[in-house]
Write a structure and sequence with these properties.
The chain is of the alpha/beta class and 478 residues long. The chain has 2 domains: 303 residues, TIM Barrel, CATH 3.20.20; 152 residues, 2-Layer Sandwich (Nucleotidyltransferase, domain 5), CATH 3.30.420. It contains 12 helices and 16 strands. Strands 10-9-8-5-4-3-1-11 form an 8-stranded mixed sheet. The chain has a 5-stranded mixed sheet with strand order 14-13-12-15-16, with helices on both faces. Strands 2-6-7 form a 3-stranded antiparallel sheet, with helices on one face. β4, α3 and β5 form a beta-alpha-beta unit. The protein is globular and about 65 Å long. Bound molecules: FE(8)-S(7) cluster and iron/sulfur cluster. FE(8)-S(7) cluster binds next to β1, β3, β4 and β5.
């Protein structure tokens, strides 16, 4: 399908402060780094193709965070929700093998709780599981998430196991801020509280981060944005971790629903708005690698980021012996390699389209995708939207906004539309594979153009062509 390209040279580009742009073609650059090429969290590009699984073998925790209720998943790496099952090492391995047999996209096995992966008796279980997975599936990457209290002393062991992806949740670098987040920690056989607890935790976290970086590991920092507590402080955290050579910083919004029974939830501590999150990310991310595609996974999540296939792999459904088709796994990677090359070529075409639209203002647009880097999701089925800022200099990935899907099998849910409109706040258009007349009209009333003219295009190419051809928007078919 050929789409007319219109030059918008006559429109003066707004001179607002903005984060560095990526050329559409550069979104594939990460694919060249073998350590992150297939890691869905460390590479935004990879998460279109690869899946992760978490194995819930670490139930204990050595600290208390005010955003956590132990009856729920670790909020460091999860959205609150009871972990379906806590597993032994043997059960964990059985589950990993079952997932590997059925999900060729699975490239990473992570341990992210539901407590802390290195706390007390959890640490040996974590190491035993990693060792077993390493032996059974050498092509899979191992990934550890921790609150960092016990990281420093475990770095040699992690190194020995060849683990080079470590995530540390670091919410503060100042104990005055930290004590508002952590009421107590358990350290060297003692329970510490107040400022002393926070001071000890923060020191141990920074030491652990330094040691892990020195050991050559790719350290990612997760920070929970807690409005009024660490929002102004996170740029300092960012600076501190940048100075220590961390690979990536992920700022995630606090989840504080009262029904989760956390201290913050019960106290009415608000979660940040999308605008607050963006503003802190902007304040931190002038020239840094910030992660913007985190989905705050459960500690037993399975599948592509944004999907959870955990219920397919509960203990009662696991085969006694999974038959892993290594050939199929290998084949999947070959297909991805071809797709990546194809997408790279599309991104170059996208750059060319944007070049025609010089001197044009920034526009925010959402995309519906179910993977593969393409605009391939029906609006009614979308449970999340990817937001981009586009102008003639390139695309900026803003982040992922979630809302329950509109289509409920033959009818549209109005309440969900309300949440969707909130998620799409600030967007001029949403690019979809298909959309019905009713939701299209609802979106139009809110000033959002629903466009299905770029269905199945690569995201970069669809966005660039939409931007460059704005004077002649694609027709919608209901
Ligand atoms: Fe898991 Fe974390 Fe490893 Fe990823 S999740 S241990 S680095 S494999 Fe990823 Fe999930 Fe965000 Fe975590 S999207 S919550 S950052
Ligand atoms: Fe909860 Fe994780 Fe904090 Fe431990 S580290 S209290 S499990 S959020």
């Amino acid at each position: 399908m050929s789409r007319p390209v219109v030059t918008l040279a006559s429109i003066k580009r707004l001179s607002e402060p903005e984060r560095p742009k990526i050329k559409a073609s550069s979104s594939c650059a990460s694919a060249s780094d073998p350590r992150i090429a297939d890691h869905p969290c460390y590479s935004e590009e990879a998460h279109h193709y690869f899946a992760r699984m978490h194995v819930a073998v670490a139930p204990a925790c050595n600290i208390q965070c005010n955003y956590c209720n132990r009856k729920f998943d670790c909020a460091n790496e999860s959205r609150p929700g009871v972990v379906s099952e806590k597993l032994t090492v043997e059960e964990g391995l059985q589950k990993v093998l079952a997932v590997a047999a059925k999900v060729p996209q699975m490239s990473v096995v992570g341990i992210a709780g539901p407590g802390d992966s290195l706390a007390g008796a959890s640490a040996p279980k974590t190491f035993a599981l990693f060792k077993a997975v390493r032996a059974a599936l050498p092509d899979v990457k191992l990934c550890l998430s921790t609150n960092g209290l016990a990281l420093a002393e475990h770095v040699p062991q992690l190194q020995e196991l060849g683990i080079d992806h470590i995530t540390v949740t670091l919410n503060a670098v100042d104990a005055e801020v930290g004590e508002k987040i952590y009421p107590w920690i358990f350290w060297q056989g003692r329970r510490l509280t107040g400022r002393e607890a926070a001071q000890t935790l923060l020191e141990r976290q920074l030491l652990g981060i330094e040691k892990a970086v020195q050991a050559g590991m790719l350290v990612k920092i997760n920070s929970v944005l807690i409005p009024g507590i660490n929002d102004d402080h996170l740029p300092l955290v960012h600076k501190a971790v940048q100075e220590r050579g961390v690979f990536l910083h992920n700022i995630m919004p606090l989840i504080s629903n009262p029904e989760h029974g956390t201290v913050f939830g019960l106290a009415g501590q608000p979660a940040p708005t999308n605008a607050q999150l963006e503003s802190v990310q902007e304040a931190c991310g002038i020239d840094a690698k910030l992660m913007r595609h985190c989905r705050q996974c459960r500690a037993d999540a399975v599948g592509m980021l944004g999907e959870d296939r955990g219920q397919e792999f509960t203990s009662d459904k696991l085969p006694a012996q999974a038959q892993i088709n290594h050939e199929a796994r290998h084949l999947y990677r070959s297909v991805v390699a071809e797709e990546r090359a194809d997408r790279k070529a599309a991104a170059l075409r996208a750059d060319a389209a944007l070049a025609l639209a010089a001197h044009s203002p920034k526009r925010r647009v959402a995309v519906c995708t179910k993977g593969g880097g393409r605009i391939n999701e029906h609006f009614g089925h979308a449970r999340e939207f990817r937001l981009y800022d586009v102008d003639a200099t390139g695309l900026s990935f803003v982040g992922v906004r979630r809302a329950d899907n509109y289509c409920q099998g033959g009818w549209g849910e109005d309440d969900n539309m309300e949440a969707i409109l909130k998620a799409l706040e600030g967007c001029e258009a949403v690019l979809v594979s298909k959309i019905g007349r009713c939701p299209k009209d609802e979106l139009a009333k809110a000033g959002i153009d629903a466009v299905d003219g770029y269905a199945l295009s690569y995201i970069e190419e669809g966005l660039s062509n939409w931007y460059a051809g704005l004077a002649l928007p694609a027709r919608i078919s209901a």
